[in-house]
Specification:
Order of helices and strands: HEEEEHEHHEHEEHHH
GO molecular function: actin filament binding; lyase activity
Domain Class II aldolase/adducin N-terminal: 8-187
Number of helices: 8
Largest sheet: 8 strands, mixed
Helix content: 40-55%
EC number: 4.1.-.-
Shape: globular
Radius of gyration: 17 Å
Number of domains: 1
Strand content: 15-25%
Number of strands: 8
Oligomer: single chain
Enzyme class: lyase
Protein name: Decarboxylase NovR
Strand order of the largest sheet: 4-3-2-1-5-8-7-6
């Protein structure tokens, strides 16, 4: 089996996403580039809790499955292939429709506000795509998302969901997890009907620099993989 550790990490990410309730049916897709011409992606029709290192597909940028059994969901190919090809830091691409960050994209002018410390780690790293076309079955969708990402890591796609990219699976997972939590805090506060208490810009910028810890990111993902090894050893 080629790319064994990459397969293990991506499969673990999908299993964890299922545990966290981020999956919708058998839709949505995570991928990981293994070289300039190929990426791993979950096969169409599998529940994320069924994904294993061995049943991930290895695909090329022409949409061909070069290793594994199954097919790539069309929107997975068009979104992920374009991002992998054109965004240098997007080695891992996670696309899903989790409740709170997706709900943020359903609010007119919805933005993550600096109302909680967990939001500060995303300062300057979130983009918003308001150009909803209703279709992800051509290269235009992936191209638009890739252009929107820029040098950031997260795109909130209005009326749709979110796409998170990172240089490693651990970083992408950690960003996805914490962004969803930050959105949950904000939307829960908004449901009170009271105004959000926004942190001053100078405080936000000062604190944001300390919210990013590579070792903590790796510790988080490693701990979650240990839980999977304990509870779901397959």
């Amino acid at each position: 089996m080629q790319h064994r550790q990459d397969r293990i990490d991506l499969a673990a990410c999908l299993r964890l996403a299922a545990r966290n309730g981020w999956q919708r049916g058998v839709d949505n897709h995570f991928s990981l580039a293994v070289d300039e011409g190929h990426f791993l992606v979950n096969a169409r029709g599998l529940h994320w809790s069924e994904v294993t290192a061995s049943n991930l597909l290895l695909a090329d940028h022409d949409g061909n499955v070069v290793e594994g059994e199954g097919e790539i969901e069309a929107s997975a190919f068009y979104i992920h292939s374009h991002i992998h090809r054109t965004v240098p830091h997007a080695r891992c691409v996670l696309h899903a429709h989790p409740t709170y960050s997706t709900a943020l994209g359903c609010i007119e002018g919805g933005r993550l506000e600096n109302c909680h410390q967990d939001a500060l780690r995303f300062l300057g790293r979130v983009s918003y795509d308001g150009d909803f076309s209703g279709s992800a079955f051509d290269d235009g969708e992936g191209g638009r998302i890739a252009a929107t990402i820029g040098n950031g890591n997260i795109v909130v796609m209005a009326h749709h969901g979110i796409t998170v990219v990172g240089e490693t699976v651990a970083r992408a997972y950690d960003d996805f997890y914490n962004f969803e939590v930050a959105c949950e805090y904000q939307l829960t506060a908004m449901a009170s009907g009271r105004p959000l208490a926004i942190l001053p810009d100078d405080v936000s910028e000062k604190l944001a620099a300390g919210m990013w810890d590579e070792r903590q990111i790796d510790f988080h993902f490693a701990a979650m993989k240990r839980l999977l090894d304990r509870d779901e050893p397959d």
